[in-house]
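Teaching note: in complex prediction, the entire set of molecules is handled at once rather than each chain in isolation. The prompt given to students was simply: 'Predict the structure of this complex.' The entities are:
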Amino acid sequence: MSNSVEEMKSTGPSLVYRFQRTIEGVIPHLVLLGYAAIVMFPIIMIVVNSFKNRKAIFGMPFQWPTPETFSLIGYETVIERSTFHLYFLNSIIVTLVALALTLLIGSMAAFALAEYQFPGNALLGLYLAIGIMIPIRLGTVGILNLMVQFKLVNTLTGLILIYIAQALPLTIFILSQFFRQVPKDLKDAARIDGASEYRIFNLVLPLVRPALGAIGIFTMIPIWNDLWFPLVISPSSKTATVTLGVQQFLGQFVSDWNAVLSSLTMAMVPILIIYLIFSRQMISSITEGAIK
Amino acid sequence: MRDKSSRKPFPLHIIVFLAPSVIIYTLFMVFPLLDSLRLSFMTVSELNTEVFAGLQNYFTLLTDEIYAPRFWGALKNNLVFFLIHMVVQNSIGLLLAALLASGIKGSWVYRTVLFMPTVLSVVIIGFIWQLILNPLWGVAESILQAVGLEQLFKPWLGLPEYALITVSLISVWQFVGIPMILFFAALIGIPDELMEAARVDGASGWQTFWRIKFPLILPTVGIVAILTFVGNFNAFDLIYTMKGANAGPDFSTDIMGTLFYRTFFGQQLQLGNPTMGATVAAMMFVIILTGVLIYTFLWQRRIQTVEM
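The expected output is the structure of the full assembly:
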């Protein structure tokens, strides 16, 4: 085996071979750079043009803003004419509360499924897992009826409850696998010391923290970005989330290009900043098998 | 410990741990889903009470001269939408993943950039592309002009024969990061020894990929396929944002999600109909469930026997 490796190495220095290697090394970069350009281009176009006046947006869309073409008129319109701050607040409340409650009650249920042998354990696990593959949207007619009965139409509470139900199946499924890996000795030692089962849960919870982080990020994104349930359950302007707010604002101001570009930038940039901060954790949580 | 607790009556702490999740999940997910299925067999009478209608709603949806063309049209469009994702999105995802997993420099930066559109809301993506493709702004046209292809430019989103493909490709553009990252995770999980052996045998990169790596990541291919299927047959936001509830032009971008919304809430000329809406949702449920069952029982089982 080592022989053939030596042989391959010895053919290395030939000029043709080296040329071939260089080409082979460059092509992947060209493909990736090309695709990265396709990804970045539309986003950059929107952000850059949002800082220009109307004339420059149409006259020279591909140029960076200059002192003459720089304008914040779009942002002024958005801030004056819409209630973006309220939409942001609604989104933050809905996302954070739904996320916190999902992680809390989801980890409790996952712990119970992983820790205790009780009749129906496997069946309950399966029951809770159905929601991983069946989208909650399909129950919209029933959900709306329920929300009407509970007087939760046009409330953030209604949205939060739906998003918890939506996020629980995957959360429980993944976390119970993590709880199963926690060493038994630790829990048994605590039990001998007379710790209650609630105390043991508190003890074990920090051990699955990496999984909580990954699930947290992947639960947050679909909630923040959802259009369907805000549109169906709470479309009032007081309870609109950013996603719905942007959708409605853009519908009204569709011909005001400054406002359209600015509102898109305002809706996009916070998420992109959060993404860039957490992207390493987020992507490595998938690639390292935290989520599988 | 375990033996002791199972002899006692059902331990309270297990109930405390499980109850909140089970209650919320049952009340807001399982019950509404079953309630929707129930409603699909009902109709609302003139006295505003629900009356059992058997399969009448399904019959109406599949054969009525107003409903049926919309249903079959949406189903066909949704299939096209799905096939474009399977072919374009998942092949690009696989290609990018293969390049990223080859030990290329800067892999980390590429991954971050390529995954970026996936975290943005579909509403934002929809509007961004509407602007880029807008003939008024002319950005897309200018780019085609720069490479000498300006005669190819058309107001794609406004033409019935192009709109569905355009919208599908925009969705592909947004979500390519998901298959990319899943394939990438699978590819870097392949043990190095296997690759070393192939390299020593003198197999080319292309050969080792298709003969060794690809068969090893078949389970991920299945996961990507079923995720694409479920996501596509449940899609709504992009079409609603770009083309409205009527999924124009001339219903050419109408998919199951937009049909469901229109049927349930109504549109300009037609009143909303909850029981017919529930029937559309039930059809979506049947389609998605069929896909999931095929995946679970045919694909996964087959993969297992191949691996053995």
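Point out the following to students. Residues 1-7 of chain A have pLDDT under 50 and may be disordered. The longest helix of chain A spans residues 15-49.
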